[in-house]
Model the fold of this input.
Amino acid sequence: MNDFIAARSQMALSLAFHIIFSCIGMVMPFFMAVSHYYYLKTGKTVFRNITKAWSKGVAIFFATGAVSGTVLSFELGLLWPVFMKNAGPIFGLPFSLEGTAFFIEAIALGFYLYGWGKFNKWFHWFTGVVVGVSGLISGILVVAANAWMNSPAGFEFADGKYFNIDPVKAMFNDAWFSQALHMCLAAFVATGFAVAGVHALMVVKRKNIEFHTKSFRIAALFACVAALLQPISGDHSAKDVAHRQPAKLAAMEAVFETGTHVPLLIGGIPDEKTGQIKYGFEIPGMLSFMISGNTNTEVKGLDQFALADRPPVLITHIAFQIMVGLGMCMFAVSILYFFVLWKKRNFEKNLWLLKLFALSTPLGFMAVEAGWVVTEVGRQPWILHGILRTRDAVTPMPGIQYTFYLFTLIYISLAVVVTLLLYRQIKMVPVKYDI
Done:
């Protein structure tokens, strides 16, 4: 493994783990706040127990997210010093604000966890809301920094130098809104389906049915609403990519030749050497229509870009297909869920739906991981789109592969610890609702 591959692999591994912790940390506080609200309005102790159980999960993922996020911040400087030297002053604003949001989140979480019976009940609930809002803002700010890498703004570049820097314009670049919206919805879908799936499995196993049924309803509602909105966000994001990063769109859709009436490819294995696609199904003219509402719209193919400027097509296309496919599966489950709600049927008697949610538990996070592969691999060979190549930004330090092995071990250990802690929390769910 050479130093360039080791650096990219280490960053990919770190992001793959951190995105899971971040999604849960952004979303779970809202589940917790809703459950707490129900407890305050109804006085039912089951909601109090749900709230306390979920708050412990929030604490676990807050701690692990802080660790993995800190590691990532060090890796940016360690692995990509050329990038950070030039880009740091430009997109440092969202990272600074993210630190502030994280600080507020930490204080609010401390108040929430240790405030039971010590604060006014509504102020206590409000601190939980602050945890969720600040966590969501923190995620949006980090995505804004990533969006800047896809859509550079807020500076001028000439002769290898950056000048006339505007950090605010850099933060609110052309890609930030579409990426932030898509990521926030993805976080709610992934976390919602994961939480709902676990509670659905417990109901199927006939364990503590009231607790898990009410927990399932809260998580499933968030997940399904977000899953129904996600295709709209995805359509907006794809059109944005078509405008700003046509090479990425061509790799996502495996479009090798420029043309009009370009079909939408479903599935398929592209061959980058021959430009041929095997095992795919095409819908004539649909890609052109989806981009602008007209099948006569021209779609730029990879033939418009030099070989050195093309993203890896096979990885980008397959990851995109996985993301879309899993998203449509969860969309279908959401339709079924709302159909059952409309029919006012009892979830305990619809075990088929609960089993479907249980099977869907990992789908959201699988889609999130695939989506980040599309975002990052699809931008290659650029670390800063059109400005700085990834290969030119990597650290010159030899032996970086050894840090890759070290961090791999750390993240695997962290994953094992988190899994054991969560399993312990699930096993400790109270059966009797004594105050």
Summary: DSSP finds 14 helices and six strands in the chain. The mean pLDDT is 84. The first helix runs from residue 3 to 42.
